[in-house]
Amino acid sequence: MSEFVLKPLGELVRGREPGCGMPGEVFSRPDVFETDIDIFFHQHWIMVGVTADVPEPGDVSVVDIGKASVIIVRDDDENIRAYRNVCRHRGARLKEAGKSTVGMLVCPYHQWTYDLDGSLRHAKHMGKDFDATCRNLRPVHLKVVGTHVFVCFADEPPADIAKLEETMAPRFAPYELQNTKIAFESEIIEDGNWKLVMENNRECYHCEAGHPELTMSFIPESTSSSADGMDEEGIKALDAYNKLNAETQANWESEGWLCSAVEELSGDVATHFRTERLMIGGDGESQTIDTKVACQKLLGNLTRRDLGDTHMWTHNSWTHVMSDHAMISYIIPLTPEKTLCRTKWLVHADAVEGVDYDVTKLTEVWVATNAQDASLVAINHRGAQDPGYIPGPYSPSTENYVDQFVGWYAGRLKAHGI
What we know:
Elements: H1 9-14, H2 30-41, E1 46-50, E2 59-65, E3 68-74, E4 80-84, E5 98-101, E6 105-106, E7 113-114, E8 120-122, E9 141-145, E10 148-152, H3 161-172, E11 180-190, H4 194-201, H5 207-210, H6 232-254, E12 262-264, E13 273-278, E14 309-314, E15 317-321, E16 326-335, E17 338-348, H7 359-384, H8 400-415
Antiparallel strand pairs: 1-10, 2-3, 2-5, 3-4, 6-7, 7-8, 9-10, 11-17, 12-13, 13-14, 14-15, 15-16, 16-17
């Protein structure tokens, strides 16, 4: 009997039938998972938090991604910095994952002590010839866009983060997202591969049946790329949405609000992202059950409530910014079958809980949606591991962005020699 040989990852992905999903082993093999971490989470820009995670000097947020760990800290001059979470002595972790407040960063092993600017300030018993300036903490590339904290562990990070920054900075600017606080945050460990989590986020084929709370405010047609494959009722709904959306965007644009879709999802792009100002259903104010604002104190100095949803996707995050709050989620792969999803709800820094906003109203849509998505990802992951699974075709009208994500994934593997 011949010995079973695993196909190389690149062959598996690029060998998929066009317009269909990837084979199940891409979501479960340990070697694929390690490759994913190395390429997509250590060599690309990833979101690891928001500025409100470190609101004051000395505040620290530590995020572990695979074997790597990054310290995000706000220094005494209010700058946000990022460092490798590795002591320059013998490599001990300086801080455990999570948030804390420090005066200086002190290694728990031998008490080497670092200032918040990364410089080594104290290292006892190292002899008169020891040069502390050669042992500062190793910086990690960092970009803050709006409130989003992006890092890249690569020596030479992808330069096209500039396109994301150039696109998103003016869209986020009116909301003054750095003048916000975290009203609520949650963590879910989803029982599925990170790629399935992101694929699920890229389509709303499942929304009508799967997300009753979200569909009170979210319009499924907003993610439909074409009428191809739709029935007559679906085509009418898409036509009505496109007409109303054009009218709404014209109104926004007349007041200077950026609306148009920008897509950097395929081709040779390394920094994968999409943005658009989307309409909100109902009263059109916010992603809440009643579609009205959940926080009476609007973001920035806004006075208009019906500004829709400025959304942004990256390959490990999704963002929805409304006039009253922002909902920001990002993922970290833990194992081939486990993915951490962190979500943060941001409100104006001066908003008062119980006066300006109620936490339940603020969060109930996406608390429910995230839990529902976790269940859907879990059944997707389990089914994709069944020996009887054969990848089926994507819906051309509602799963186009899933197909683009898989195409981008395959392209990045090829770009890295896989």
